[in-house]
Amino acid sequence: MAKCPLCGTALDWGELIEQMLVIEDAEGLFKDRERFMATFESFVFRCPHCGEEFYGKNLPTREAEKVFALLNEFKGSIDWENKKVRLRLNSLLALDTMLEQWDKKVKG
Ligand SMILES: [Zn+2]
């Protein structure tokens, strides 16, 4: 799970993504995987707990890729008018990890 690199608090992906929704042409950005990942890595996020700033590259890349996929998989996942993420990304990521581990167990 994503954690603040400074205070170690678990972060909510929905909250992180919402910080990115103000970027110019965010709607286009959130449809283009390569552009999204490049922007994500250099984006300055602010931790809602300690208030410190850090780059997206300090967060797990694999989770960011999954978040991008989830946002594109579900129609209406982002409420652009109110700049809100409608999906519960942390729950979906946890479920995804659980299924992966279960899959490994079955095949292993
Ligand atoms: Zn923090």
Task: Tell me the layout of helices and strands.
Blueprint lengths: L12 H8 L5 H4 L3 H10 L1 E3 L6 E3 L5 H13 L4 E2 L4 E2 L3 H19 L1
Antiparallel strand pairs: 1-2, 3-4
Helix pairs in contact: 3-4
What can you tell me about this protein's structure?
With 108 residues, the chain is mainly α. It has a single domain, classed as Roll (Ubiquitin-like (UB roll)). The strands form 2 sheets. It has a two-stranded antiparallel ribbon. A hairpin with a 4-residue loop joins strand 3 and strand 4. The longest helix has 19 residues. The two termini are 24 Å apart. The model has no long low-confidence stretch (mean pLDDT 96). Bound molecules: zinc ion (ZN). Zinc ion binds next to loops.
State the strand order across the main sheet: 1-2
Number of helices: 5
Assembly state: single chain
What CATH calls the topology is Ubiquitin-like (UB roll)
In helices, the fraction of residues equals 40-55%
Structural class, by secondary structure, is: mainly alpha
Shape field? globular
Provide the gyration radius in Å: 14 Å
The CATH homologous superfamily name equals: Bifunctional heparan sulphate n-deacetylase/n-sulphotransferase
- Give the termini distance in whole angstroms: 24 Å
Question: Largest beta sheet, briefly?
Answer: 2 strands, antiparallel
Average predicted local confidence, pLDDT: 96
Q: How many β strands by DSSP?
A: 4
Strand content: 5-15%
Number of domains: 1
Label the CATH architecture. Answer: Roll
Bound molecules: zinc ion
Give the topology string: H per helix, E per strand. HHHEEHEEH
Low-confidence stretches: none
